[in-house]
Description:
This protein has 832 residues and is of the alpha+beta class. It has 6 domains: 24-144, no CATH class; 160-266, no CATH class; 284-534, no CATH class; 543-604, no CATH class; 630-686; 746-828, SH3 type barrels (Roll), CATH 2.30.30. The protein has 33 helices and 25 strands. The strands form 8 sheets. It has a 5-stranded mixed β-sheet, covered by helices on one side. A hairpin with a 3-residue loop joins strand 12 (543-545) and strand 13. Helix 5 (76-87) crosses helix 7 (108-123), helix 17 crosses helix 18 and helix 27 (583-591) packs across helix 29. The protein starts with 23 loop residues before the first helix and ends with a strand.
Amino acid sequence: MSTDEPPHPQESRPPQKGDTLRSLAEALRTREDDALAELLHARPDLLNPVPTDLTQLAARAGTRASVVRALERLDLFTQQVAQTLAVAPEPTSYEELLGLLAGDDGDAAVADALPGALRTLHGQALVWGTDDRLRLVRTARELLAPSPQHPSPTGLGPTVAEATAGMSPTRMQDIVAAAGLPTTHDAVSAVEALTALFTDRARMSALLDEAPAESVEVLSRLVWGPPYGQVTADPARHLRWLLDRGLLLPTAPGTVVLPREAALHLRAGRAHRSPAPTPPPVAPGREHRPQVVDATAAGQAYTALATVEELLKEWDEGGPAVLRAGGLSVRDLKRTAVALDMPEPMAAFWVELSYAAGLVASDGEADERYAATPAYDEWQELPAPRRWAVLATAWLAATRTAGLIGGRDGKDRTLSALGPHLDRSVAPEVRRRVLSLLAGLPEGAAPDPDSLLARLHWERPSPAAHDLRTRIAQWTLNEAELLGVTGRGALSAHGRALIGGAPEGVPGTLGVRPPAGAEQVAAAGRAVEILTPLLPEPLDHVLLQADLTAVAPGPLERPLAEALAVLADVESKGGATVYRFTPGSVRRALDAGQSASDLHAFLAAHSRTPVPQPLAYLIDDVARRHGHLRIGAASAYVRCDDEALLNEILADKRSQGLRLRRLAPTVLAAQADPGTLLEGLRTMGFAPAAESADGDVLITRAHAHRTPPRSAPEPVPDGPPLPDATLIGAAVRAIRAGDLASTAPRKESPRTPGGALPRTTSAETLATMQAAVMTGEAVWIGFVNAEGAASQRVIAPVRVEGGYVTAYDHTADEVRTFPLHRVTGVAELAED
Length: 832
């Protein structure tokens, strides 16, 4: 590669051949502020706390935890480049690195992709140096270098020099002689001669041409790794041939290794068997017309709203109890799934989504239960498209992962719905990346799942996170379909708008940074606009039929739906909802305070067909008998003006469990409580009504239990929070200023040894400050703040009075006032 186009343009002045950078800190000093800002954005853990200067920034960038995190976030090819640098000589040149990646035959795709990968590594301070002296940071080399305990990802073993360290000089001379090389006078030159042989393509080929076929077979099994093998104390002839010539070197008793130089020859110079310079494309699967996709997704979006409403209606009077350890019990989740008529994993998803959207929470009472929040009532008043946007945006940002429910955590504890330990900080990133990859396909095209997972693996190949990311991606495809973000597997128009029309993203990252604040609100608003015409308008009528059913040919207006849900039972759902009128449902409406005339008027006003005669008879018949029996607390009693009816009850064997006895001709007493007595008589076919202590009929309406105001759970961030541009800009200025203070040339003083804070007496400090005010020169000071933290600063004093010095602080890039008693000392800066 020509040095006219260096592979790391993020450097402010790309280091040229001949530059002598001695450390990562010096390399960082050559960068422009924009390049430092990109480093801090890519590795936000370096900002906590803000480094005092570039030396501290470089030291922090080389810590093990930070390097591990940075390596895990690289794409496959960039990781392969870092792994190759770990097994290359240090330092190595760009041409040598390209040769190790592309092999002897060359690989145009690798040559094209290598500059971008090196830009990423340079930008993240994992690689530093010039084109002819590239260096991987020491911690990354230690993490990626091969060893018996931690084999290299490249499958290469140690070099000849590393494998023969500690070998006796006599044994080294025997190996050199057996390989056909002249003996040397010491072990060092013998190692050099053997290394030169293994790296010489012609001589190495000639040596292997003499090898027995069995020996070549052994090498072929070790060449791509792992490079270690086992031998006995008396190895076979073909193994002895390899051992005698150093093609297998002992590393421990009974263990041998194929040296790196020999393996590279057998690999035709490649460090990796299969370099992956380009990301695998996401292949389209089945294709549909975009209109069909949007209509399907819109229908599923409406079903999602109905499902959440049905769930919270089920919990309206107080949901399941909260387990002592938090969350729902397995029995309560199963009961909820039965009520929603869906599998338990799907019910768990809707429960978690409602919780993530802030629509459900625990009530915090002594007998703690789950219930809807006040936000649910506000959510219900929103138009359907906006209600969907609330759910969809909550799902995109949630770190709680419903797919884990039913599994076990690291301590073998069962993971329960709404319980702890369900947060996975990578979930929002993976969800958004999956959707952005779908957005890159042609409109109406569903992805091939295998190619989608292969692409995600290329973008984040870290083995530790691969399994979890794969599962989250698979769950994302299913959940997006349930929620109506996708239709028939393809991204819908409103789903595309929801993610901001995200492109495929930049290779080397797992997608784009999710929009925040106003951007996300705007994206949700665009999704609402697109979804609105796709959803059906709510209807204000039903179709009454003679078989005591009512058909709602579409979604109903909320007041009509709520009133009809009291008067009738839902028999079936789908494109049209079928309600059935029964004596029990009519009695439920009468218990809620409605009269027979109210029900007749309601049905006549909202039916496009005449009210069938059987339905009118049913309402009148139930109303005529409703409240004929009255039940109150005695512990419980039954009163009725019709003595014959009370006689009928006493004669019925089904009343024996209520333990009734006559107190008066028109009154029966029971040992059961009023609720049990009321339900028992209804089971027997009667229509009793409860009454108050004053003898008035009690109207029983559903009591909507609500929690106190609750906020939605906050997503758990994946590592340190991403800093904004303002914070990064301030941090870069502070680091630059601190570096100026720490590296500013200053006059030597016996009181100020190199690297220490200056030390002067109070009188000397005052005199030097006053002199600097008169000359306008900058000075170097040591300063201890109110918290006791010491720092060094370069300041230009402006005024000294009242025990304070006012000066322009080059470190903070502002005018500040310093108490003189906190200044440890002052020194003049040396002339440039």
